[in-house]
Amino acid sequence: MSLEILEQLEAKVQMAVDTISLLQMEIEELKEKNETLSSESNTNRESREALEQENARLKADHEAWQQRIRSLLGKIEEVE
């Protein structure tokens, strides 16, 4: 009977070892995915920051053009 119990214990130990191995592989896959997503996140953040800077520059350019147009319209009105 003790041989039976020993075989059952061995089977449970083997199942635990197999489960641990699968979980370790899953952890490695998740770490790689996390690194990929972190890298993508950094890239997206940098792109967003660059777009925000470009947007601010374009808004400033737009405001400058509006000022120039207002100035020219004021000069035209003075002539009339």
UniProtKB/TrEMBL annotation:
Non-essential, abundant cell division factor that is required for proper Z-ring formation. It is recruited early to the divisome by direct interaction with FtsZ, stimulating Z-ring assembly and thereby promoting cell division earlier in the cell cycle. Its recruitment to the Z-ring requires functional FtsA or ZipA. InterPro entries: Cell_div_ZapB. Keywords: Cell cycle, Cell division, Coiled coil, Cytoplasm, Septation. GO terms for cellular component: cytoplasm. HAMAP family: ZapB (MF_01196). This is Cell division protein ZapB. It comes from the Bacteria. Residues 43-60 have a biased composition (Basic and acidic residues). One of its GO terms (biological process) is FtsZ-dependent cytokinesis. Transmembrane segments: none annotated. Homodimer. The ends of the coiled-coil dimer bind to each other, forming polymers. Interacts with FtsZ. It comes from Grimontia indica. Belongs to the ZapB family.
